[in-house]
Structure formats: structure tokens, C-alpha cells
Amino acid sequence: MRVIAGICRGMKLLAPTGTSTRPTSDKVKEALFNIISSRISFDDVRVLDICAGTGSLGIEALSRGAAACIFIENERRVLACLEKNISDARITDRSEISSMDALKALSVIVRRGLMFDLVLFDPPYDSGLYASVPEALCKLGLLASNALFVAECSARNPLPDSIGPLARFDRRVYGDSALELFILEET
Description:
Rossmann fold; 5 helices; eight-stranded mixed sheet; 27% strand
């Protein structure tokens, strides 16, 4: 697992041993960021990486020029890898880690008045968060105008075509995983 492009290109990322995390493969990450790059420029983009794991997706966005990223991860064993990856990438000045449950973290972040242009969401497939997290993002007003929301999920369990004001514009399947990309529709 490595950073694909940008200032950290080629950097290897640390991942915990075992099966508690499922890091996004380089092939899938490259495809994802090609799709995202065709829709947005990373300059000045604020990123939220929910269920960040090793931080691979958020670090990729920062490497490509995103202004800042908040990483949400609550598994203690994975946090050490996330912290080391951010430190090794030398992006601590643009990174923040929220080490709590995803929904609780969102309720804390909203109090700071932050909004995000890109949300990367890769929870455990059986977590039950696929409906509640995007709904909370919309309800709490954490998404900027035309924000992108990306979910990695099981290919066997597609997400609905829309979640509140989020409308799916693309779905790609890579083996057992699917990337589902949504845009916040103007209301």
C-alpha cells in the first residue's frame, strides 16, 4: 500500500496486521482518485476521512494538494498506524485525528462550523453505518456546496441511488468491493 500521486508519491503506508482493517488497494485507490480528479481540483479542498483506518485515502488527498483533512478513527490498534503514516508523510500541519465513534465525531465537528468538499467513507462492511453517517452529514450541514461523498462498500450490497440530497453519479465494482460516488445536489 502506497501513496499514488502528489508530494508523497511512492511513500509506503503502514498497516496493522490482522483482518480488522481492510485497506483500499492501490488499484482501487488510483481509480477512485482519477474519478475524483475529473470532478474537482484538490487545491483548497477540505477533506473528511471517516473510518479512516490507515489514513490511506485522506493522505492521498493531502498529497494531491487538499488544504486539510480530519481523520475519524476509533480503533485503538489502528490509530498508531494512522498517526505514524501522517507523521511519515510530513502532513501533520494539515491533519487532525478524531479518535471517537463516527457519529459522535460528526456531532463534535459540527460545533466548529466546518464544512467539507470531499468526504471519504470506508467503514467495516457490516458496521451498519452506511445509512446513518451520510444522513448525519446532510442533517448537520457538514457538506459544502457540490460536495463529493465517496463510500467503499460491499459489491453485493449497493447503496441507494440517493441519500437525502446526495445523489449517486457513479458506481464501480472491484472484486468484492464497490466505490459509490455521490454529489450533494443543490436544493
